Structure formats: C-alpha cells, structure tokens
Amino acid sequence: MIKALIAEDELLARERLVGLLQKQGDIQVVGACANGRATISQVRETRPDVLFLDVEMPGIDGFGVLDAIDREQPPIIVFTTAHAQYAVRAFDIQAQDYLLKPFDEDRFQQALSRVRAQISARRHNGRPGPAAQKGERILVKSGGRVLFLRVREIQWIEAAANYVRLFVGDQSHLLREKIGVMEERLDNNLFVRIHRSLIVNAEHIREIQPCGNSEYLLVLKNGRSLPVGRSYWNHLDQFLKDQTNSSL
Asked: How far apart are the C-alpha atoms of 162 and 181, rounded to whole Å?
C-alpha cells in the first residue's frame, strides 16, 4: 500500500482529496492536516510515501513544512494550490507534480500515475532518494495548467523564434526558451541537435534515410520524418556511433 498524507487548510478541498484517494485500491490515507505544524508532526509519525501539500496554510506554509521534515527520507511531494506563482519554486525543490485548483479527476489521476511510477522506482532501487534528479523534468504552462514534463518523454524539440515547441506523444507545448539554451540544458547522451531548428531524443529514432545530395531524413518511431541539416550530419553520425559503442 502507498501511504498518503494530506495537508490542506480548506475543509472542502481536504475532504475532496480524501475522497479521491480512498477510491484507489492501492493507497491508504494516513492523515489529513489543516495546518503546517500538524503536517510536520504527521510526516514524522506516519512516514508517508506521498504528501499532498497546499502552499498557503496558517502558521507554517507548505515550503516551511518541507524545510522542517527529514530531507534524507522525504515523501514524494504533490503540491495542491490555487496559486500558479509558486510553481517555479516547487520545481526547484523537485516536487513530483503541481496541481492547480480547481483540478479535475483526470488531472488528479495523472499525478497519481507519476507518484506510482516514482514509488516503484524507489522500491526497485532500494533507496528513498529525492522525487526526481535535477534536469529530469521541465516545467511548462499549457492551457492554464502548470505541467512537469519528463524529459525522457520528449520526442523532439523545434525552434520557434524565441520559443521552443516540445513534442510529447500527440501533444506539443510551447516554452519561452531559445533552442541553443535548451540544448545546453539537456543530457547530451540522450538528445542530439540535427538541425539549427531541431533537437531529437535518440530513444525515439527509428532510422535514417538518405535523400541524395548528402541530405538525410531522420525517421522517428512514431513515423514522423525530420530533416538533418548538412552541417549537423557529422555531429549526428558521431553521436550514433558513440551510442552504439557504449551499448556493446
């Protein structure tokens, strides 16, 4: 069972979270707190696997709670708040998710899926560890929501002036960042620049097709074809050779 603790000062919101969690067959609600001080006490007493944490609470706020609890064995943190302005700070402390109220049940299930995956990884590795290592997720705002995208899920990235568009599954998300800066932020063992406007996740490459005149198309596993810039071919070729050698 996954032990879940709720920290929410609004009674109706607290009861809703309890209700949503009690529908899950693999989650046990070990407490529901109305303020920061009680939350700190309950975290120490119950050692929850996941903490659903409001930011603005009387006395000690959500970030004060995190400062006070044991950072060697922290619970996974899912923020639940009506205030978008705390999202960047939440991202900096490696929160697993950031649910903006009012959120629907589908969005809540997405957060639970991430929690379950993280707990599974922790238990498999036999160590608590932080919710995510720095650089594993990217924060974007999309459709009035704040999303934490897992970097490995990004299939490719396309420049759009001073923005980049991140393609994840059948969705895309716009991020205010230049592609050169984005390239520096990414793991160069996983992502490769193939064009002045394109970066690709190597895990999603299916094949490379020659087109004549020293030009190539890179085909992804989803069938999408992307052009390889002539000045980037040697870099891509060396990247793929290194990938092949490292897997031997």
From this structure: 10
Q: What is the mean pLDDT of residues 83-105?
A: 79
* CA 104, 65, 30, 127 torsion-angle sign: positive
Q: Which two tokens stand for residue 153?
A: 């899920």
Give the pLDDT of residue 35. Answer: 95
Quickly count: other Cβ atoms within 10 Å of residue 45's Cβ: 11
What does pLDDT average to over the chain? 84
The token duo for 16 is 């809703």
Backbone angles phi, psi at 154, to 5 degrees: -70, 125
Other beta carbons less than 10 A from residue 180's beta carbon: 12
Distance of CA 218 to the CA centre of its chain: 27
Q: Is the pLDDT of residue 152 over 60?
A: yes
How big is the chain, counted in residues?
Answer: 248
Separation between Cα atoms, residue 169 and residue 183, nearest integer Å: 20
Q: What is this structure's pTM? A: 0.57
The dihedral built from the CA positions of residue 90, 56, 69 and 125, taken in this order, carries a sign that is: negative
Instruction: Decide if pLDDT at 21 tops 70.
Output: yes
Nearest Cα to Cα of residue 70 among 92, 49, 40: 40
